[in-house]
Amino acid sequence: MSQSTREQVMRHLEAVGYLQPALHKPQQAPYPDEIDHSLYRAYTRSAHDVGGEPDTPMTWEEKEEEQWELNTFATCECLAWRGVWNAEERRRRQNVDLGQTQYLGLPYYGRWLLTAARILVDKQHVTLTELVSKIDEVKSRYEQN
Amino acid sequence: MSKIEHDRSHHAEKATGIGDPQCFHGEAGPAKFKVGDRVRIKNLPDLFYTRCQVYTRGAIGMVTEAVYESPAAEDEAWDNTESPEWFYSVVFRQQELWPDYPDLYANDTVETEFSERWLEAV
Amino acid sequence: MSDEHQHPPAPMVDEVSDFEVLEAAVRELAIEKGLFSAEDHRRWTEYVHTLGPLPAARLVAKAWLDPAYKELAVRDGVKASLDVGVDWINSPPTGFGTPSDYCNLRVLADTPTVKHVVVCTLCSCYPRPILGQSPEWYRTPNYRRRLVRWPRQVLAEFGLQLDPAIEIRVADSNQKTRYIVLPVRPEGTEGWSEEQLAEIVTRDCLIGVAVPKPGVTANTKRPVRPAVHPVDHHH
Question: Which residues of A touch C231 (CB under 8 A)?
Answer without folding.
Answer: 64-67, 69-70
